[in-house]
């Protein structure tokens, strides 16, 4: 029994399965981008190049163990145009329509302000038809109202479900990256994945949550950057002097598709290998792209594999201790 990843991209969830000690060949990734699919295949992951929204889920007859969904976030992200955030009420209505056995996607596509917004409905459509043992979804924080509405539907269909915000730095990721997550299972009681590290408080970096390990810093995974700072270019209109600075002993800013525009204090840009490590991929993950922005887009869009591993472990999937022990950088700070 396999796992279907509906927006599989370059391999975040696949790599999480590897970290957990599972064979990623059990995962079939659906991905519309041939470029991202090439990255995944170079890493040894299976990809079917297709638009998930155009696939007939009713034609799937095999038993599927898990359904994963990290739909495109650009319309909902603060880094994007924000049109998707104005579609939330429409999409909550659509979730109830899907729960009632109707398909509202065409009507939504004709009305929505961002053409990509309708894709957030796909994980629920697939989960209700395939009835997997578990399902895991991830997106930017603005999508949380949709995940909460979908969690209510899944509970009506016999699932234990949790939806909420997770802060990536609490799950072994050396960057401050909040995510909206939905986890549901028909086999285990689902609660929030247990944090193992403190939140990072940008306005009070010395503050740590009691009883938890400190967050991982830039220097923990990039020891050659110890003593340096990273200046963010995010939201600056191209002016690197207009944005904040993170020291080597703090978590990085959220890794976005613009990550290589950030500059170290020695004047060099953040490299692809460094961005990959900050996302908890390996430094030599085989990112493929015809243009440089193909690579950085994949890195920025990916779910951090260690965050994904914590989410899967909360569903009873894999060995979390193995994932934490084999993560690049963790062995250096053990």
Can you characterise this structure?
The protein has a domain at 2-199 and 303-320: Rossmann fold, CATH 3.40.50. Helix 1 packs across helix 10 and helix 3 runs parallel beside helix 6 (144-156). The protein has 12 helices and 10 strands. Helix content is 30%, strand content 15%. With 334 residues, it is an alpha/beta fold. Strand 2 (27-31), helix 2 and strand 3 (46-49) form a beta-alpha-beta unit. A 7-stranded mixed beta sheet has the order 3-2-1-4-5-7-6, with helices on both faces. The model is unreliable at 328-334 (pLDDT under 50).
List the topology elements.
Layout: E1 2-5, H1 12-19, E2 27-31, H2 34-42, E3 46-49, E4 64-69, H3 88-99, H4 105-111, H5 122-130, E5 134-139, H6 144-156, E6 160-167, E7 178-185, H7 218-221, E8 229-231, E9 245-247, E10 263-264, H8 272-278, H9 292-301, H10 305-314, H11 320-326, H12 330-333
Parallel strand pairs: 1-2, 1-4, 2-3, 4-5
Antiparallel strand pairs: 5-7, 6-7, 8-9, 8-10
Helix pairs in contact: 1-10, 3-6
Q: What name goes with the CATH superfamily of the domain at 2-199 and 303-320?
A: Vaccinia Virus protein VP39
For the biggest sheet, the summary is:
7 strands, mixed
The CATH architecture name of the domain at 2-199 and 303-320 reads: 3-Layer(aba) Sandwich
CATH class designation of the domain at 2-199 and 303-320? Alpha Beta
Q: Helix and strand succession?
A: EHEHEEHHHEHEEHEEEHHHHH
Structural class: alpha/beta
Strand line-up of the largest beta sheet: 3-2-1-4-5-7-6
Helix fraction, binned, reads: 25-40%
State the helix count: 12
Q: What is the percentage of strand-forming residues?
A: 5-15%
The parts where pLDDT drops under 50 for at least 5 residues are 328-334
How many β-strands, per DSSP? 10
Compute the average pLDDT: 91
Give the N-to-C terminal Cα separation.
Answer: 36 Å
CATH topology of the domain at 2-199 and 303-320: Rossmann fold
- Overall geometry: globular
Instruction: Kindly provide the radius of gyration, computed on alpha-carbon positions and rounded to a whole number of angstroms.
Output: 19 Å
Oligomeric composition of the shown chains? single chain
